[in-house]
Design a protein that fits this description.
Layout: H1 13-23, E1 45-48, E2 54-57, E3 62-63, H2 65-72
Antiparallel strand pairs: 1-2, 2-3
Length: 75
């Protein structure tokens, strides 16, 4: 087994992502998020509009920061 300087092969696409995560102080093993369950009712994402407001996905509602966080909070 080959030993790598960072613990992984940084020449691969996945290794580049891990190296980027490491360079900004994130854990390179947990930088990948879990898949989004789109079968659950409600919003699962948001797009910033640039004025402190967000368009929720998929509903399309325009909401503020606190409402965005409330809707995206998962139990």
């Amino acid at each position: 087994m080959k030993k790598f300087k960072y613990g992984f092969d940084h020449t691969t696409g996945d290794g580049q992502k891990r190296l980027m995560a490491l360079s900004v102080g994130m854990d390179p093993e947990t930088y990948i998020t879990k898949p989004i369950d789109v079968s659950r009712p409600g919003d699962y994402g948001s797009d910033p509009l640039g004025n402190g407001m967000f368009r929720m996905v998929p509903s399309g509602d325009i909401v503020g920061w606190e409402e965005r966080n409330r809707r995206l909070r998962r139990s």
